[in-house]
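Question: Now follow the chain.
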Amino acid sequence: MNLIRIRSKGQITLPLPVRRAVQADIGDYLVCEVRGDSVILRKAPVYPRASFDDAIWRLVGSAEDKEGREDVSVDKHKYLGDEL
């Protein structure tokens, strides 16, 4: 068991053996969950970022449009968070 102290601003330092055990590195995200009087930290799942070449964009707008909406794939940069 490792004993850690809560610092100013609520910060804690995860001991190196703990970081190694869960393969956590600088910049990784952790999910924090409270269960009773316990705090559970888990490594957050990492999902690859969508790109302009992803197959999903071939499907977007390909279905028959019965409501007159326009093809959103032309504005895919908005949905990906990219700027032109």
The mean pLDDT is 82. The chain is about 20% helix and 15% strand. Helices lie at 16-21, 56-59, 76-80. Residues 48-84 form one domain.
